[in-house]
Amino acid sequence: MITVKQWNDFTDTKKNIREFDDYFTNENVVNSLKKDLSVMDIDWTYAVQHGVAFNTMLNFSLQNKNKKLKVLDVGSQFNFVLYSSVLFDMTCLDPRAMQFNCHIPGCFQIKSIKGEAQKINTPDKSFDIVTSLHAIEHFGLGRYGDTLDYYGDQKGLREFHRILKPGGYLVTSVPTNSTSRIRFNGERNYKPGDFDSMLDAAGFEKADSLILFHPGANKENILMSREPAILDDYPQNSTRPVYFVISKKKMML
Fold first, then answer.
1. Cβ proximity of 2 and 26 under 8 Å
2. Are 175 and 137 in contact (CB under 8 A)?
3. Is pTM beyond 0.90 here?
4. CB under 8 Å, gap of 24 or more: what pairs does 55-63 form?
């Protein structure tokens, strides 16, 4: 469990990538957030999940000897796609997007395609990684111009499995709660175990997971935890925590 203490240590230029990585992998590391940072106009939920996701993808890249991996992002914030494109071959999918191919030599290249997660117009086994951060909970609810489909989230996961190469990874996050629930035209909240079951049914094997909290949203100032039981006492009027999951495409017999 990691508490919110001295978050500004993340930006200490003296720290190298290995030390940065340890904040996400070493459960004994304790950090805190200085209260005066709260006046900054930052959405900490997205900031933390984007940092964890990018660090995860960076580790995949290092494992593949810095090969430029092909990544499909579905519904995440565009700033995450933008800075990820410096190291990865990024394609983003969104029902509201216009199709474009933005290429600045020596800097980044991003492709955008208009479409929905429930039916992705891409051949099988096309991507090394699929990312979808704080988006799956909206699939099929119509909030962002997508087709109404009660099972949109489950169909989207099956499509992710189809377009991933053998052994490919899914990096995703969804709002979490002690019980699963749905708010029409808004979003779904998932109990961690229920989302794990959905991943398993879609053909994924969970590799790792974290529950990420908005700084200051709970009295213990907990930032990250691996224990779902912590959600049982989470205040319902606070910003919803995020269930961050790394999962791998199962090898089908």
1. no
2. yes
3. no
4. 55/20, 55/21, 55/24, 56/171, 56/246, 57/84, 57/87, 57/88, 57/129, 57/131, 57/171, 58/17, 58/87, 59/21, 60/128, 60/129, 60/169, 61/87, 61/88
Q: Which two tokens stand for residue 183?
A: 């708010």
Give residue-wise pLDDT tens across range 109-150. Answer: 788 888 999 999 999 999 999 999 999 999 999 888 889 999
Domain span at 27: 2-249
Residue-by-residue DSSP string for 215-229: TTSSTT-EEEES-GG
> How many distinct structural domains can be found in the chain?
1
The first and second tokens of residue 151, run together, are 């099972």
Q: Please provide the DSSP assignment of 115-158 as one string.
A: -BTTB--S-TT-EEEEEEES-GGGTTSSTTSPPP-TTHHHHHHH
What tokens were used for 163? 């377009």
- Containing 252, the helix (H) or strand (E) segment is none
CATH code of 105's domain: 3.40.50.150
